[in-house]
Specification:
Layout (H helix, E strand, L loop, with lengths): L6 H17 L9 H12 L10 E5 L5 H10 L2 E6 L13 E6 L10 E7 L10 H11 E13 L6 E2 L9 E2 L2 H9 L3 E15 L2 E12 L1
Parallel strand pairs: 1-2, 1-4, 2-3, 4-5
Antiparallel strand pairs: 5-9, 6-7, 8-9
Helix pairs in contact: 2-3
Length: 215
């Protein structure tokens, strides 16, 4: 397994890993029912609109389908970020959706009303988790909401499940995620568990989705 000790090196591993999956047509998460449930959770718990158009950031947007749904359902200005340019989503019927090819930690165009991290945190190196969350907090306006969806550990422990190409997959626990966000002053407000309908190594796996508010 490839290992990298620097952040840019690991970003290249993540980019190349997902590039392979997209090129092989193996991005089963695109349009999956579980993905729709995360979108529903995010829109249901989005903050009330303030003056002007609601701004949404979709982190790790992939093909951009969720970005478009967020724009339509919230009549928002939605921006999708990704390390790859695989965007093929049709324009939204309501609101606007745009794509930026960049790393999340390099994005500074706040403030945002809503951040949606549907499956990115659990691919980051553990040492980057605090900086990842703190950067997101700086992008949120006061009262803004961050929705994060991650692999839910079927045990009481946080577990690393790396791929052979070096990309990390973490199985996270709710206390670990809540404590991580709390250290940046983000308060958990809503939660849901989504069944992945997937049996792996003797475990029936699920996703955890949490909403956090910036006070």
């Amino acid at each position: 397994m490839r290992r990298e000790t620097d952040y840019p090196g690991y970003r290249r591993i993540v980019r190349d890993s997902f590039q392979h999956w997209y090129e092989a047509g193996r991005d089963s998460w695109t349009g999956a029912p579980t993905n729709d449930k995360v979108t529903e959770f995010a829109t249901a718990h989005a903050p009330l609109p303030g003056p002007g158009t609601r701004r949404v950031l979709d982190i790790g947007c992939g093909r951009g389908h969720q970005t478009v749904q967020l724009a339509e359902r919230l009549d928002a200005d939605a921006i999708g970020l990704d390390l790859l340019d695989v965007w093929d989503a049709a324009p939204p019927a309501h609101g606007t959706a745009s794509f930026r090819r960049t790393d999340f930690l390099g994005f500074t165009d706040g403030p945002m009303d809503l951040l949606v991290d549907n499956g990115c945190l659990h691919h980051q190196r553990r040492e980057e988790w605090p900086g990842w969350v703190e950067h997101g907090r700086t992008l949120l306006r006061p009262g803004g909401i961050w929705v994060v969806s991650c692999f839910l550990s079927p045990t009481a422990d946080v577990v690393a499940k790396p791929l052979a190409d070096g990309r990390l997959n973490w199985w996270l626990t709710e206390p670990a995620v809540t404590a991580l966000f709390a250290r940046s002053g983000l308060v958990a407000t809503e939660r849901t568990v989504i069944d992945r309908q997937f049996n792996y190594q003797g475990h029936w796996l699920k996703y955890l989705a949490l909403a956090f508010v910036r006070s």
